[in-house]
Design brief:
The complex is a heterodimer. By secondary structure, chain A is an alpha+beta fold. Chain A is built from 7 helices and 5 strands, in the order ααααααβββαββ. Chain A folds into 2 domains: 75 residues; 72 residues, no CATH class. Chain B has a single domain, classed as Nuclear Transport Factor 2, Chain: A. Chain B contains 4 helices and 6 strands, in the order αααββαββββ. In chain B, the strands form 2 sheets. Chain B has a 4-stranded antiparallel beta sheet, covered by helices on one side. Chain B has a two-stranded antiparallel ribbon with strand order 1-2. Chain B is elongated and about 80 Å long. Classes of the chains: A alpha+beta, B alpha+beta. At the A-B interface, strand 1, strand 2 and helix 7 of A face helix 2, helix 3, strand 5 and strand 6 of B.
């Protein structure tokens, strides 16, 4: 019984001693370095900017400018800033390329839809129509561009000084049928005169081009 | 007094008539490039006629289309023009009014008809006439091929001479005066027929 009492005492002391040892190993207080925190946050933000695909270029530029304004000299931060700058520059170049591509496509579309080009297309489709029905369908569509089937068509054959010499004037209906019958390329378009409704009221062609 | 008035009037009319003729005859010759342009235009009209004739003669051409093309082809000719028609079976050359010729061409008793014009060229250049018109002659060779339903084939080649008239005219379009060259085809005469 005496032995067991000693054992309990010994165990108690041992546990108490362990407690003292573990208390000694804890630091007295946690020291926070604000600059290190700023650097860590800057690094995290810069990495986020590098990986982000949702933010606009302007937003990224604003966030980068805010980080640069901290004037941090940490080498890793500076390296990350350079990487983000490079990435933004690449994104800007790509955006510019896409914008130019869009403008080019819009201009192409506008050109294709310009009356002169629409008319050229009709001329080609009528001359090269695989059948009479196909030619007639194109003639009917082309006629919609004109004030009437009797819209005058003039064809320049030569110039006398600044005065054009014309072939006998014809009408658009006859000219389109002429292309259908003769199956030859149309004369070049020299001038188109529109009425107030945007319909063609006079067409001038030329054999000189 | 009446006589004096008549004399003055006659002198007045004579003066303007003569001065008009002088003005016409002294009108400057066309610059070579303008002359070349009307030469080329006349040749083009003949080629256009060639295509119209092949469409009208083609048995595949629907009736309404052939009639429409006849109207277009008629616009190429001056009024009263005639077309010569020959055959290997006869020495006779018959002349028909252009519209009659087209109608006969449409109604030819063949199952298939093929007409081609080739070697289209001037044999007499466009020359200015005293009345201000230019007149020339273009020659063409026409190869005609007709096949009957039972497979019989007739073919010949005809040399034809086409008189061409080119006249300077004016018209109003869009409120302005337009000067143009009116090319009109005249008689088409057969000069030779071979197999």
């Amino acid at each position: 019984m005496k032995n067991s009492g000693k054992f309990i005492l010994f165990a108690f002391l041992a546990i108490a001693n362990l407690g003292i040892i573990s208390c000694k190993k804890q630091p007295a207080a946690t020291v926070v370095d604000p600059q290190a925190e700023i650097i860590a946050k800057a690094k995290a933000d810069l990495r986020a900017l590098l990986n982000n695909t949702d933010k606009s270029i302007e937003q990224k530029e604003r966030e980068l400018a805010a980080i640069k304004a901290l004037n941090l000299t940490d080498p890793e931060v500076l390296s990350l800033i350079a990487q983000v700058e490079e990435k933004i520059a690449a994104q800007k170049a790509e955006a510019l390329r896409l914008e130019e591509e869009r403008k080019r496509r819009e201009a192409e579309l506008a050109r294709a839809n310009a009356p002169e080009n629409l008319l050229k297309n009709f001329f080609g489709q009528i001359s090269n129509a695989p059948s009479q029905a196909a030619a007639d369908a194109n003639i009917n569509q082309a006629l919609n561009m004109f004030t009437s089937p009797d819209t005058p068509v003039l064809t320049i054959i030569s110039m006398a000084g600044d005065q054009p010499d014309y072939d006998r004037p014809t009408t658009i209906q006859k000219y389109l049928e002429y292309l259908k019958d003769q199956k030859k390329p149309a004369d070049a378009i020299e001038n188109i005169v529109f009425d107030d409704n945007g319909k063609i009221k006079e067409l001038e062609l030329t054999k000189l081009k | 007094m009446v006589n004096i008035k008549n004399i003055i009037l006659a002198a007045f009319i004579t003066f303007f008539a003569v001065s008009g003729l002088i003005a016409q005859s002294t009108e400057p010759e066309l610059a070579p490039d303008r002359k070349a342009a009307i030469d080329s235009l006349a040749l083009e009209k003949v080629r256009d006629l060639s295509k119209y004739i092949s469409i009208i003669g083609d048995k595949e051409t629907p009736f309404s289309e052939a009639n429409r093309v006849i109207e277009r082809a008629m616009e190429l000719f001056s009024d009263g023009s005639q077309m010569g028609v020959s055959s290997l079976s006869s020495n006779e050359i018959k002349y028909y009014g252009i519209r009659t010729y087209f109608r006969r061409l449409m109604a030819l008793n063949y199952d298939k008809v093929k007409i081609d014009w080739f070697n289209i060229q001037y044999i007499s250049d466009l020359e200015k006439q005293p009345d201000g018109r230019y007149v020339g002659v273009i020659t063409i060779y026409q190869r005609f091929q007709g096949i009957t339903e039972d497979g019989m084939k007739y073919q010949d080649t005809t040399k034809k001479d086409i008189t061409v008239y080119v006249e300077r005219k004016q018209t109003q379009i869009g409120g302005r005066l337009i000067g143009f060259w009116d090319v009109l085809l005249g008689d088409i005469r057969v000069s030779e027929t071979t197999q």
